[in-house]
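Q: I'm writing up a methods section and want to include an example of the input and output format. Could you take the sequence below and give the corresponding predicted structure tokens, formatted cleanly so I can copy it straight into the document?
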Amino acid sequence: MFQLTRALTIARYDLVINAGIAGALDKQLELGAVVQVVSETFADLGVEEADGSFTDLFKLNLINPVAPPFQDGKMVNTFGSAYDFLPKVHGITVNKVHGYAPSIEKLKRHTNAKVESMEGAAVFYTCLMYQMPFLEIRSISNYVEPRNRDAWEIALAIENLNDVLKNMLAGLLENRYE
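A: Here is the clean output for your methods example:
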């Protein structure tokens, strides 16, 4: 995130694209599907309580859930509506890939997220604070389920992501020089 912040302090860009793979919390998303993440949450920033429950930074009153760049504790991409070519999903950013069934079930109960990544919310935060147009594009490489790397489809996810990015960039360049 340091490199993105540094780049945004040095120059102004037309668009930041955060592209990568993600785990799907929703099994209706097919492996290899490419989605646009339109909102993000830091899912595991907070306190694990003695009873095993989780209290986020907003409920701890450490961050105001409606102070920019947050809207009710989420960050919403207000710039992405111009890019309506992919299914839109809510994402969460985590500090670990979930692979333990009870943790996964708790995560699903407490979020309405469809995908998890490890850096999406940081890009959202940085771009929203700099008022920089951005997109988060993710391809589904695996389901968030008890750890089973044999079921992951990283090559398919990257291939599909690359195809979408090539087409998207070609369209952006074509529109820019018309």
